[in-house]
Amino acid sequence: MTTHTASSRRRFFFEAGAALSAPLAVGTAWASAADGGASRSMRADELGAIEAIRRLEQKLAQHIRSRARDEMANLFVDPAGAESVVGIRHLAPADFGERDVINLAADGHSARIQLPCEIEIESEIEAEGTLAEMARLQGDGLLRRQETCTLEADLVVHGGAWRFRRLLFR
Amino acid sequence: MAETRYPREQMHRIAYTKLTPEQIDDKLRAAADGPASASPLLDVLAGRQIRILTDDGPELRYRFGDENRLSLRENGAAAVDAGYGALTIDDIVFFSHMVPGTQRGYHVVIDEDTNLVTVFEVWFSGYEDNREVQRQAYFGYVEQPGQPAPEARHHLTNRAEGKGYYWKQDTGVETLEFYPSTIYSNLVELSRFGGELGFCAPSDYIQVNDEVYIYQRTECEFSGTQTIYAFDVNRVEQVGARLGFDENDDLEYYVFRGSGEWLGQLAKFERFGDIGENLQNGPDEKGARRVYRPMDTFQTFTRAEFDRIAAETEPTVFPPGRGGMSGNKQQVSDYLVGREMTVRYDHGPVIEYRFDEIQSLRWRKEGQGNWTTARYEAWQSAPDLVMFGHLLEGEPDHDCHMVVADFEHALASCLHGTMGSEYIGNEAQVENLFGVIEMEGLEAPKYRRHQFTDELVGRALTWNYDRQSGLTSMHLYTTPHSLSWIIFGQDGAGGMEWSGPAAYVKVRDGIYLGYWLEEACNGTLGTILINMNTMHDCGAGYHGGSDGVRLSAVGAHSRHAGQFNVRKFFQL
Questions:
Q1: Mind telling me how many Å the CA of A130 is from chain B's nearest CA?
Q2: Closest by alpha carbon to B410, among B341, B504, B506, B334?
Q3: Which residues of chain B are within 8 Å of residue A143 when distances are taken between CB atoms?
Q4: Mind listing the pLDDT tens digit for each residue in B30-54?
Q5: pLDDT digits over B375-416, tens only?
Q6: Which of B487, B519, B543, B554 to mutate: most A Cβ within 10 Å?
Q7: C-alpha distance from B4 to closest chain A C-alpha (Å)
Q8: Of B145, B181, B498, B502, which alpha carbon lies 20 to 30 A from B218's?
Q9: A38, A42, A46, A51 alpha-carbon torsion, rounded to 10°
Q10: Euclidean distance between CA atoms B486 and B260, whole angstroms
Q11: CA–CA gap between residue B319 and residue B375 (Å, rounded)
């Protein structure tokens, strides 16, 4: 992936959030980011890849919300990769996805994404004392907090579908 | 001569009888004739027949005879005759009755303007403590022949959250009642219990309309008595009922009307726009509610047992690291390092100190030869104002001193914690000590001391202890002698709540030394120096458990949440 970063900065870097939520905006965003501002249309296969990646993100958010562990594992090349979202209770794009970044490799079979997002993290209460006891009672032993962060992930086409190879929140 | 009635035991110390179902059957026989009432019962329902339909609840067909007799058919079953009592506020009719021969009954609130109804089914012997009233609220309407069923319903709400009232019933009973939560409430029994302490009870809040609400609480972990009323926030009037067994196990079943005074409004922490339309109070099971039962989890010991544990276990004093209640603790201060001083408490001990290192001091009582080394922590709350704490090894009661040393005025105040009450061997107790600092370069005042204050009384402050876990509570300083703590739900609404004895000392403008005792709870003594200039506190929790004595730092960031106007109720 990194071997393509330099060239992709010229050829493949674009603002994907607007592109994915509104195809009409793709051309505009693409044109502004690619070729140093020179206008260029997005190829159909590139657009298809972007849409597939966006669907993968949406499935991830859905499975997090519904706590569908098995379905979540299927989104990863290595099902154990789903461990990276343990404790995440809710995932939503930040800023309407306008700052999303997708680097699509030249061969169209791998990508690196950076998605600013808002997450809700669920964690067990570790503190002792009355407050913690009450919180456990009230919240089933869990505390939740919201954070704004960036989802960073490497993706590949695996078994004919886009999947996460690595995912982390920064 | 009017006399304040102080009870022999406060509510949390009364050993309420574990009544059997048979005893409750016996005691409820008197309820078949309906509730007592200090006010004349109203005949507003006399001669009427109504059919109440509820969502997921009973169908109730009532035929009202006079102002005291009704017959009821539940879900089409045979009619049962019962005594009842009804009272009104404007269009709101409240009536209550038991079902003779059972341990069940109903409290019903009808809005005659809309024909919407809230039905509270109540019963005894539904929990391991049989005397604890169980309840289930149903929402519905009074059938109007020829008219379609209305779509609107009364509903649980957060719109009453944050309110507080003084209420005086027609029985003469006076209370302060605070609603800082959507599932709990706080009551100060001014007339029945002398108004020293506030107590907490799981509660329901239901919105009838913008100015009328229904409030229900059950004094779980105490007498189990239920109080329910509809109240009008404009008129500040209430009509309702009280049902249960008092400390003498006598049946309390009466309807009442009352009037009161609005005491203020605390801040709410839900998102703007959240008016609590989708609130739930516990699992979706009949009678379910969230109840904090602290004695279920408090591991208690006799004093002899705890002395043995403490002798065999190294005390834990200011363990390193942050987290939990210390996640936002203040920086440990080196202000005292290198200083030598004597703290002379009035009528109390005189302690000589040498502060050798940032977390190591030596102390001895004046006139005694040997120094004792102790681990301590100090936090500087304001210029020349330091709080520090340590255990007093060798003292008979696993003693601790949490000291506020004000070097600007050469004053010192101490919360002297000891382990063991007359009830529980590992329950902390505390005394306030006031005195002066004697050291080179300081001249101590002869008469001036830090003093108890009521400036905090009625105030609410939130405390965020740990950003990582989000552990946050709100203190409500309910009386000069008690404090309540409320935790928040995930939507920001006030949640579970409990309380304990407390006291507050004014140290400087906006700076207060306070404590609370988690009596009949988990035995902890909480000590904090509240600085409302920095909105940050410092202090420590002192606890005795199976792991011995613990003295642990606490620290939290604060937000103002309002203040009830209640100080006038506590002035002698």
A1: 7
A2: B341
A3: 469-471
A4: 999 999 999 999 999 999 999 999 9
A5: 999 999 999 999 999 999 999 999 999 999 999 999 999 999
A6: B487
A7: 32
A8: B502
A9: 120
A10: 24
A11: 10
Residue to substitute from B295, B463, B467, B496, interface A, most A β-carbons within 10 A: B496
Q: Quick check: A135 and B518 CB within 8 A?
A: no
Given CA atoms B254, B259, B261, B266 in this order, what sign does their dihedral have? positive
Distance from CA of B194 to the nearest CA of A (A): 27
Nearest to B290 among A125, A126, A137 (CB): A137
> Is residue A139 within 8 angstroms of chain B, CB to CB?
yes
The ipTM is: 0.82
Question: How many CB atoms lie under 10 A from the CB of residue B456?
Answer: 22
Contacts of B178 (CB under 8 A, 6+ apart): B163, B164, B185, B186, B187, B198, B263, B266, B476, B478, B484, B564
For A106-128, the three-class secondary structure string (H helix, E strand, C coil) is: CCCCEEEEEEEEEEEEEEECCCC
**Side chain identity, residue B527:** T
Across the interface, of B290, B294, B495, the residue whose CB is closest to A130 is B294
Whether residue B495 lies within 8 A of chain A, CB to CB, comes out as: yes
Helix (H, G, I), strand (E, B) or coil at B141: strand
- Interchain contact B490–A (C-beta under 8 A): yes
Can you give the pLDDT at residue B119? Answer: 98
Identity of residue B328:
N
- Chain B CB within 8 Å of residue A52 CB: no
d(CA B255, CA B526): 40
What is the C-alpha to C-alpha distance for residues B141 and B153, in angstroms, rounded to an integer? Answer: 8
CA-to-CA separations, B144 to B46, B66, B93, in angstroms, rounded: 18, 22, 17
Token couple for B454: 């009521």
pTM: 0.84
B546 touches chain A (CB under 8 A): no
Q: Which of A118, A131, A145 to mutate to test the interface with B (most CBs of B within 10 A)?
A: A131
Residues B439-496 pLDDT 10s: 999 999 999 999 999 999 999 999 999 887 788 999 999 999 999 999 998 889 999 9
Q: Under the phi-then-psi rule, with left for phi > 0, alpha for psi from -120 to 50, and beta for the rest, what region is B562?
A: left
Confidence of residue A41 (pLDDT cuts 50, 70, 90): low
Q: Do A127 and B471 touch (CB under 8 A)?
A: yes
